[in-house]
Specification:
Pfam families: Methyltransf_23. InterPro entries: SAM-dependent_MTases_sf. GO terms for molecular function: methyltransferase activity. One of its GO terms (biological process) is methylation. By secondary structure, this protein is an alpha/beta fold. It has one domain: 3-Layer(aba) Sandwich (Rossmann fold), CATH 3.40.50. The chain has six helices and twelve strands. The strands form two sheets. Strands 5-4-3-6-7-12-11 form a seven-stranded mixed β-sheet, with helices on both faces. Strands 1, 2, 8, 9 and 10 form a five-stranded antiparallel β-sheet that branches. Helix 1 runs parallel beside helix 4. The chain is globular and about 50 Å long.
Length: 237
């Protein structure tokens, strides 16, 4: 079972839901991801995600769409939405749920079409993996944006997860290039997937990277637990 997420989403869609995904992280934490979380209705979404959906305009690419709940909502609102995910199981579920435009691809391999809105929710920027990959990733997003396009993304500043010293600083392991880089492994029904890198990026670091790549970065809103919603646009000439 290589496609851990996709297998879990397919089981839920096919009414075979019995287990949740277990995650193991480099932060020495074990956690669970309830599969129904990927199938939330609009009213069940956190306010940051609802805000992002309200800001969507024009043609939209939902990057890392998962089970397609955001795409489905936007499609029902009449938007021209394309749902994209690297997981074959996820894109199969999107099709079963009635999403009309679905693409199975790594975002870095996808090109040729430009959009008014690139949507990356549920910490969608996490797929960058490592901070050193961010410049390449942002450069690719620019190729997918129309001149007046926008990127809407959310992330979290996870500095709070590290131990604070008496001087107000934090103990960051020496082997970390950036404290927001986390290694995850997912397990579903006794099957473990391959470890993968996931990036949680603080807003100031995101803003600096955006400016370095000719993008303007705006903080739209902040959540209740170190999370935030940001908008990237092409810098004005």
């Amino acid at each position: 079972m290589k496609d851990i997420l996709g297998s879990a989403l397919q089981d839920f869609q096919n009414k075979k839901y019995t287990d949740d995904i277990i995650t193991y992280s480099s932060l020495d934490e074990q956690d669970k991801i309830p599969i129904p979380y990927f199938f939330r209705t609009y009213d069940e979404l956190p306010k940051l995600e609802q805000k992002a959906l309200s800001l969507c305009r024009g043609t939209i690419l939902d990057i890392g769409c998962g089970a397609g709940s955001h795409s489905l909502y936007l499609q029902e609102k009449g938007f021209d939405i394309t749902a994209l995910d690297f997981s074959q199981g996820a894109t199969d579920v999107c099709k079963l749920r009635g999403i009309e435009k679905v693409v199975h691809s790594n975002i870095l391999d996808y090109n040729g079409t430009k959009f008014d809105t690139l949507l990356m929710l549920m910490n969608g920027i996490g797929i960058v993996g490592k901070l050193t990959n961010l410049n390449l990733f942002l450069s690719h997003l620019k190729l997918l944006m129309k001149p007046n396009g926008q990127v809407l993304l959310d992330s979290s500043d996870i500095i709070y997860m590290y131990e604070e010293d008496d001087d107000g600083g934090y103990w960051i392991p020496d082997n970390k290039e950036y404290y927001g880089e986390v290694e995850f492994t997912m397990e579903y029904k006794g099957n473990k997937g391959k470890p993968f890198s996931w990036l949680y990026i603080d807003y100031n670091t995101l803003q600096r990277a955006a400016l370095a790549n000719g993008l303007e970065c705006e903080l739209i809103s902040e959540g209740d637990h170190y999370d935030y919603l940001a908008k990237l646009t092409n810098a004005k000439q």
